[in-house]
Write a structure and sequence with these properties.
heterodimer, A: mainly alpha, B: about 325 residues, Phosphorylase Kinase, domain 1, Transferase(Phosphotransferase), domain 1, 11 helices, about 15% strand
Chain lengths: ~120, ~325
């Protein structure tokens, strides 16, 4: 699977999972649909960016760091909107980026920029 | 009568055996090896300014069998232009009638000695894969080595692998063309069955080295094909892996398939064997072993352990946040 599609699917999938955990918090359970949609959108965008980054930069560590930063930043935006729960939102968010970054860089197929041999393949 | 000192005797023996290179452009150096039918000498080529290895018959061969075998070996090597096969530079005949050929001088260690320096199984298996490459190349050109063993594989200082001693190699296409009516497709290389063998290579109709010979080759059956080399490669693989590594069922199954009693049960050729070793190294299923579901799951978990650990870390963090903060 190419890196962009893999990043998109993984980011989206983990975003859904992350959103669904809101069900365990009774005070926000009624808003779960919106939370899941928001979380999924956040995951899709992060996954897309991570996928493109991984395609351009053929480096697992660099993609992992990029994934943590991007997902952490999106999680920060969500937490900042609420004005609280920074740690509770940003920790799992950053870990989603870590997983997406690693899996995309390690398993995704796609020619990194400046590598004509792999592009030809 | 006074006995000659050992040093004097060895000098005399060397003087008798040493090839007379007058009439060639080479300058004789020291003896670097000795095989079943001849010896290998270091020689300098002043014209090109390089040192080569010269393989020469020990004695003039009146019957011509060994001479034909040496010439044939040179032609086989010339046909196999591959980085893993020693290139032949020149051929000729000495004034005393002994044929010779000049080839690249190989410096390095025998396969087993080189493998002993590699600490991990993975590195030894990668070395084995490099042995398979020239053998597979030869098989693709219809040539079966028939004498693969550690002393016939040299590993150079940069890790380059060279398969040596193609003296008893079998040319499948030539034999096939002999059976067919009409002229052969390529210039013929006379098949040769020497009457005399030497240390390391058995003599007579059975050619090869005990322990590395496929059962059908040891029986002297006709029709030995690439699967005889697969058998020898299997023995080499067993030696390189070692008994500890062979406790792994998948690797043991690869060795067992390569060294199956019946050729039909072995890998078809060196590429198929190498492909299974690559699969083993990559943590993928091998064709030699049918896994049980839990073995497949365990292999999957080992292969993707980092990704699974990261996923577990995420789930653990999510669970911790839920339990500690309730959200």
């Amino acid at each position: 699977m190419n890196k962009v599609l893999l990043g998109l699917l993984l980011g989206g999938g983990l975003g859904v999972l992350d959103g669904l955990t809101a069900w365990f918090t009774p005070e926000v359970r009624k808003d779960i649909l919106g939370i899941v949609m928001g979380s999924t959108f956040k995951g899709l965008v992060a996954g897309l960016l991570i996928g493109f980054f991984s395609k351009k930069v053929a480096s697992v560590p660099a993609t992992v760091v990029f994934g943590v930063i991007v997902s952490g930043f999106f999680a920060y935006l969500v937490a900042a909107q609420m004005g609280k729960y920074y740690f509770e939102v940003m920790l799992p968010g950053a870990l989603v980026g870590l997983v997406t970054g690693y899996v995309t860089a390690r398993y995704g197929k796609g020619a990194p920029a400046g590598n004509p041999e792999r592009r030809a393949a | 009568m006074t006995a000659l000192p050992d040093a004097a005797v060895s000098r005399l023996v060397r003087a008798i055996r040493a090839p007379d290179l007058s009439g060639t452009r080479y300058v004789l150096g020291r003896e670097v090896g000795r095989g079943g039918m001849g010896s290998v000498w270091e020689a300098e080529d002043p014209e090109l300014g390089r040192v080569v290895a010269l393989k020469v018959l020990d004695l003039p061969d009146a019957a011509g069998d060994l001479a034909a075998r040496l010439k044939r070996e040179a032609r086989v090597l010339a046909r196999l232009e591959h980085p893993g096969v020693v290139p032949v530079h020149d051929v000729g005949t000495l004034p005393d009638g002994r044929p010779w050929y000049a080839m690249k001088l190989v410096r390095g260690d025998r396969l087993d000695a080189a493998a002993a320096l590699l600490p991990t199984l993975r590195e030894r298996l990668r070395l084995f894969l490099r042995v398979c490459e020239p053998v597979a190349f030869a098989h693709a050109r219809g040539i079966v080595h028939r004498d693969l063993k550690p002393s016939n594989v040299m590993v150079g200082p940069f890790g380059e692998v060279l398969v040596l001693d193609w003296g008893i190699a079998r040319l499948l296409d030539e034999e096939a063309s002999e059976r067919r009516p009409g002229p052969p497709a390529e210039p013929p290389i006379e098949p040769c069955e020497p009457r005399a063998g030497g240390p390391g290579t058995a003599a007579g109709t059975v050619l090869g080295t005990p322990g590395y010979m496929a059962p059908e080759q040891a029986r002297g059956d006709g029709g030995v094909d690439a699967r005889a080399d697969v058998w020898a490669l299997g023995v080499l693989l067993r030696g390189l892996a070692g008994p500890e590594a062979l406790r792994a069922r998948r690797l043991a199954a690869i060795v067992a398939k390569a060294t199956a009693e019946r050729p039909a049960e072995r890998y078809e050729g060196a590429p198929a064997l190498a492909a299974d070793v690559v699969r083993y190294l990559d943590g993928e299923p091998v064709t030699a072993y049918r896994e049980r579901p839990w073995e497949r799951a365990a292999r999957f978990a080992v292969r993707h352990r980092v990704a699974l650990l990261l996923l577990l870390a995420y789930l653990a963090a999510r669970a911790a946040v839920l339990l500690v903060y309730g959200r």
